[in-house]
Please model this.
Amino acid sequence: MHGAKEAKTAGLLLRVVAKSVDVIIILAATEVLPKAGFLAGIGYMLIGDGLSGGRSLGKRLLGLAVLDKEGLACKVKESILRNITLVGGIVLWQVPLIGWILTVVVFALEFIILIGSPEGRRIGDEIANTRVVETRLEEAV
Model:
């Protein structure tokens, strides 16, 4: 990624849609293979941003990338760190009776931090020291 440090911070809508694509992949995997698909989906959510130049499938489709503090593409380690909070929320969904409330709380906190951050970083980005940027279309495909 050339000039990555000067790259434009990704907008909220693009980020939400990209993450929604990734969640749909997890839901599809869970539907096809209930237990194994759920675990595979969780694995994908954890490492997805560390694959393919800092782009999960959702980010790749929308022309986004995750960069580390040096402005380089996110690696698997940073991907795990930045997505552990979201995966925690997804796993909490499994808790009987109150799981869905806990999941909503986790996702709401991430969202509130994201919209309140001048740098456009959510809790996971703060933990991993990453940021999501827009890339040129030819880099994204």
